[in-house]
Design goal:
The complex is a heterodimer. Chain A is an alpha/beta fold. Chain A has helices at 5-13, 28-31, 84-92, 128-134, 195-200, and strands at residues 21-24, 42-45, 49-52, 75-81, 98-101, 105-107, 112-113, 137-141, 153-154, 169-171, 175-180, 183-189. Chain A has one domain (5-201): Glutaconate Coenzyme A-transferase (3-Layer(aba) Sandwich), CATH 3.40.1080.10. In chain A, helix 3 (84-92) runs parallel beside helix 4 (128-134). In chain B, 20% of the residues lie in helices and 26% in strands. Classes of the chains: A alpha/beta, B alpha/beta.
């Protein structure tokens, strides 16, 4: 059985080390916060906050307190606020240990595409280009294939890039892959998934 | 010099002209200068170029200036919450220059700090780098981005004193300080103007040197996405 969304998030949480400052993207990456356990992890929200807390109780929403996905959130005893230039200074400056992001496509050299589909909806990159360029480690969490069953892990990306050679590790419903010289290396298979199944679902070169 | 004005319309008087370049604070609908945007709508000023991370939502925030066709061009990082924006952009009525969020913030900060350009690794190898100078430092490629200097900045803060010292609240700070810095003139709308001396000088987020006019008013402060968790049973 391939991993489901929560199992992928739980696996991604294992990547985080005690004391890290981390940025989580929208979608499955947001779920990672539920699985950090006892580790001392500080979540950054790139609009200008460190120490992001859970969603507020109904009635406690504060219009002045939102995350980068524009959702209402809460603060913690460790929270600090700052402006967006300072926020991206810490991102670009390599102070954020890791970003966990979703993706549309990843290539075997670590190229990442997750912001635009030409001719369809054009929403914008938001902070994704800054994050992948700046943080210590870029971890992608996504389904291995798209809705049509085609591999999202490619020799070369077909969509406009968010960053060139920026991805370190890919966690999918089928397993865990690392970007290494010459292609991708299988680190781990999801429980019940065979190497042949993962290879069949992967267009990129596996070394 | 008197910085406090009675209404948002009065605070913008004499500052507006067609075709001008405006930098606006806010992220999504959080910390946006609602009253000054309303005053821009009322003024009828047109052919605006606006640098703002987002363009509001349909019918609210900067989205109001889209409905009235007062915006010619946007510099933004994310416009996904706005159907009218998409319609005007795809039909060619509206120009759009995508800027990565951190690049946009830094362009404002730099422009306000006398820095005409800076090198960043954000966007290297992507469409953002097209036509921009690439320079290698210590084995890593960077692209040249320009500082922004706007004709006018419009920002929202929580509290001000009458000298323009500003304090923001929580994540409503966002783009407001860099947007304020990059304007030749900056107008701030605030929830409360407090007596001089009542703000702790060590706790000022933006010194009044960047703020030329202030107006106090009541904002709607609409929430874009309400997300909550259930209360635990007692």
């Amino acid at each position: 059985m391939p991993w489901d969304r929560n199992q992928m998030a739980a696996r991604a949480a294992e990547e985080l080390e005690d004391g890290w400052y981390v940025n989580l993207g929208i979608g499955i990456p947001t779920l990672v916060a539920n699985y950090v356990g006892d580790k001392d992890i500080t979540l950054q929200s790139e609009n200008g906050m460190l120490g992001m807390g859970p969603f507020p109780y109904e009635g406690d929403e504060d219009p002045d307190l939102i995350n980068a996905g524009k959702q209402t959130i809460t603060e913690l005893s460790r929270t600090s606020y700052f402006d967006s230039a300072t926020s991206f200074g810490m991102i670009r400056g390599g102070k954020i240990a890791a970003a966990i992001l979703g993706a549309m496509e990843v290539a075997e050299n670590g190229d990442l595409a997750n912001w635009m589909i030409p001719g369809k909806l054009v929403k914008g990159m938001g902070g994704a280009m800054d994050l992948v360029a700046g943080v210590g480690r870029v971890i992608v969490v996504m389904d291995h294939t798209n809705k049509a069953g085609e591999s999202k892990i490619l020799r070369e990306c077909t969509l406009p890039l968010t960053g060139k050679a920026v991805v370190d590790r890919i966690i999918t419903n089928l397993g865990v892959l690392d970007v290494v010289p010459g292609g991708l290396r299988i680190v781990e298979l999801a429980e019940g998934v065979t190497e042949d199944e993962l290879r069949a679902a992967t267009e990129a070169t596996l070394v | 010099m008197k910085k406090v004005y009675g209404t948002a319309g009065e605070a913008l008087e004499g500052l507006l002209q067609d075709g001008m370049f405006i930098a606006a604070g806010g992220f999504g609908l959080c910390g946006i200068p609602e009253l000054l945007i309303d005053a821009l709508v009322e003024s009828g000023v047109k052919d605006l170029t606006i640098a703002s991370n987002n363009c509001g939502v349909d019918g609210f925030g900067l989205g109001k200036l889209l409905d009235t066709r007062q915006i010619r061009k946007m510099l933004s990082s994310y416009v996904g919450e706005n159907a009218e924006f998409m319609r005007q952009y795809l039909s060619g009525e509206l120009e759009l220059e995508f800027n990565p969020q951190g690049t946009l913030a830094e362009r404002m900060r730099a422009g306000g700090s006398g820095i005409p350009g800076f090198y960043t690794k954000t966007g290297v190898g992507t469409v953002i780098a097209e036509g921009k100078e690439v320079k290698n430092f210590d084995g890593q490629d960077y692209i040249l981005e320009r500082g922004i200097v706007a004709d006018l900045s419009i920002v929202k803060a929580w509290k001000a004193d009458d000298t323009g010292n500003l304090v923001f609240r929580k994540t409503a700070r966002n783009f407001n300080p860099p947007a304020a810095m990059c304007g030749r003139v900056c107008v701030a709308e605030v929830e409360e103007i407090v007596p001089r001396g009542s703000l702790d000088p060590d706790m000022i987020h933006l010194p009044g040197i960047y703020v030329h006019r202030i107006v106090q008013g009541v904002q709607e402060k609409r929430i874009e996405k309400v997300t909550t968790r259930p209360r635990e049973e007692a």
